[in-house]
Design brief:
The chain is globular. With 316 residues, it is mainly α.
Amino acid sequence: MRKLLLLALVGLGAQLVDGSLGMAYGVTSTTLLLAIGTNPAAASATVHLAEIGTTLVSGFSHWKFGNVDWKVVFRIGVPGAVGAFAGATLLSNLSTETAAPLMAIILLVLGLYVFLRFTFQGLPKGHLGKPLRKRFLAPLGLVGGFVDATGGGGWGPVGTPAILASGRLEPRKTIGSIDTSEFLIAVAASLGFLWGLSDENIDYGWVGALLIGGMIAAPIAAWLVRHIPPRVLGAAVGGVIILTNTRSLLRSDWIDASDPVRYSIYAVIYLAWAAALVYAINQYRSHKAEDERILAEAEAAAAAGETPDEKASARA
């Protein structure tokens, strides 16, 4: 009973972070399951089965708070489901530990870009509101879905920073759309795991505990992301990506850093992250009116089916 309660609390905390920052539910939950001796395929299967419920509630909550771009959801979610099914069936018989450090480097670079971009420059002004093309979203979804299923998490860490880095979708809608599309990935991955694994490898009590905790947190997270300033949200997301992938690299066979080295690097990251958040909050207060105007114009143009540039041209 104590273990189930712990899992429910982990599900609650993981979904609170995931729903407000666009990532970390799978990574957090899978890490705990691996720590208590679950094999990688069963751990990922357990998390993805729980995510069917949590992502459904999270997606509905984000939609109610206006955080979802449905074109992005389907353009990235459908290929993501294909990648997730393929990754789930592959993980049933294959380890992807060798590829993990390479993926961590790619994500770390994207995280650094997002972190610096939003902390020091605020909302992107040149491309915000412009449509995200299928030729960008489809490959991104395919890779993100595959990584998510094989790594027990990764849909958010792959999709969120890439879309944020494009500068075409504001942070809250990026997070809401990624969280909503994750329902398709969770269903596809679960089907792949059930195809490749026997039921006896999955503890449905653990699935239920993670599910209950995540469903409680989902509406709260959707409300939070609606009210956190985009500049601060971007800096927060960037920090999560940097910390998560630095940790993966330092613990990988490529580096295998000692505890003193790892903890020293973590301390530096935490200090830099805290300072950046303070700076982002102060800058947001100084440029609040301008940021709100940019967001309002982007949303109005999107509702009218125009890009901000086209709207500006029409006014001229």
